[in-house]
Amino acid sequence: APGDYRMEELDVPKVGPEEVLIKVTAVGICAGDAKCYAGAPLFWGDKDREAYCQPPIVPGHEFIGEVVALGQGAAEKFSLELGDQAIAESIAPCWKCRYCMRGQYHMCMPHDIYGFHQRTPG
């Protein structure tokens, strides 16, 4: 809910094939994060639109950190090693729409962004 942000301990996720686990060392707060916290209708919905935010989530999609685990094939796919500094693309594309199929994932319409949706909880 708007304004309901709190510090909580969460279980460390297990990595799957081609996944990377990053221990976050720094995170930025963008305008979208601030608007979500403040309760903007774009994120929480109103009479004219559905909510974009799907809590519970971990906010923060602009982050950097240390690679602490690599799933099978992830090191080769992303050219990473344990201990490397890494960031994530904040857009999580569907890989199925016409834009993704053409390599234009930045234009993916059903995309998710870390920290707003259940598929990409942060």
Explain what this protein looks like in three dimensions:
The protein has 122 residues and is of the alpha+beta class. It is built from 4 helices and 5 strands. The chain is globular and about 45 Å long. The mean pLDDT is 90.
Write a brief caption for the model.
With 122 residues, the protein is an alpha+beta fold. Helix content is 17%, strand content 20%.
For the largest beta sheet, what order do the strands appear in spatially?
Answer: 1-2-3
- The dominant shape is globular
- Measured between the Cα atoms of the first and last residue, the distance is 16 Å
Give, in order, the helices and strands. EHHEHEEHE
Strand content: 15-25%
Q: For the CA atoms, what is the radius of gyration?
A: 16 Å
Low-confidence stretches: none
Which whole number gives the mean pLDDT?
A: 90
* Helix/strand/pairing category: alpha+beta
User: What's the helix count?
Assistant: 4
Number of strands: 5
**What is the percent of helical residues?**
10-25%
Major sheet details: 3 strands, antiparallel
Describe how the helices and strands are arranged.
Layout: E1 20-28, H1 31-38, H2 41-44, E2 62-70, H3 74-78, E3 85-87, E4 91-92, H4 98-101, E5 112-113
Antiparallel strand pairs: 1-2, 2-3, 4-5
Characteristics:
20% strand; alpha+beta; 122 residues; 3-stranded antiparallel β-sheet
